[in-house]
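May I ask for an example protein's residues together with how it folds?

___
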Amino acid sequence: MTRNLAGPALVLSVFATGTAFAQEQPQGLSFGLVAGVSNSLYVGDEDDTSVFPLLSYQGQGFSVGFDGLTVDMIDRGGVRVQGRLAPRFTALDDPDAVALQGLDRDITVDAGFSLAYDISPQATVNATFLQEITGEHDGRELTVDVRHQLMLGQVPLGLSAGLTWQSEDLAGYLYGVRPSEATGTRPAYAPDAAVIPFVGVSTAFPITDSAAIFATAQASFPDDTITDSPIVDEDRLYSANIGIQFNF
């Protein structure tokens, strides 16, 4: 399913910023392999177990990978600002489920920026704003979260909790049903702006100077404007991944 393509972006994001092992990514090429499991938000779309690759490059002041392109803009006094260019994947891109036939959403591209502020040596407040730039829906998204790093005995943990706000245009693209897509069993639906709380946990263990095993898990809780959609039949989203990454 096309939603699996979002897996690398999620893993890279959590792994790069949510574990004590990876506070600073070394420059160079990174490659990895991840096994993941997740449920789907959409009617008739099966839960998924998959294996997918990770590939990214960390340069001086920029990085590029499956989660897009980031460019460092400010890094001083515990404040970091980055410019971002990121793909947005969706399970409605040529869906397989019979209940979703007649719906088709393209993969789009967002541009924006992220800000991170260190409130302590172990805790960071983060905000990311994205605006769709491919002309499909003109939607916007704002994510704000707090990430905390700690040691549980010998186990490094990264904990995160936050909220994602999605504009009415973006929510309509992801969860809405256009009048032309309505059927006898699928009424037209135009959602309002949506809020999605989430929590996550991650860990990583270096096994050599250039390799690590890592794991991530996340749970998201879409609000009523999403779960009331006729193409949505879940009110919780869960994902878990485990993998290995090598730095060259």
